[in-house]
Amino acid sequence: MSSSGKIVEPWIYNCNSTQFLMEVLPKIDTDATFWLDAHDEGGGFPLFQELDLIKTLFKNKSSTIIMDDIPVYLNQEGIDDIKKQIKEINPDYEFDTCSTASPDHVLIASTKGCIFTGY
Length: 119
Prior knowledge:
This protein is of the alpha+beta class and about 120 residues long. The chain has a domain at about 30-110: Translation Initiation Factor IF3 (2-Layer Sandwich), CATH 3.30.110. It has four helices and four strands, in the order H-E-H-E-H-H-E-E. It has helices at about 15-25, 45-55, 70-75, 75-90; strands at about 35, 65-70, 95-100, 105-110. The protein has a four-stranded mixed β-sheet, with no helix packed on it. Helix 2 (about 45-55) links the parallel strand 1 and strand 2 (about 65-70). The chain is globular.
């Protein structure tokens, strides 16, 4: 359902995440929440590309960005690079982590104040 209360028909995309984002980001003109998995099915690591697409193609520069599997693919230097790239989208982003399968497994970026008070 859209924010206007109208039912929105779902669309199904069969493509990789960067192709998907290139297709849909220019069409969205409202706030959104992004859940980005740090890896793709082929073992690649598209997270930096996905963040670049959000920066260049998405109109709203204050949407929440949630990234999964962070410690599986990144050391502290890589995490700092991700945070720097997100700050290029909007310098007001603040960061928090959430532990799921391992400590600090999920990285959350938000401009909306208190981020996470759970696990």
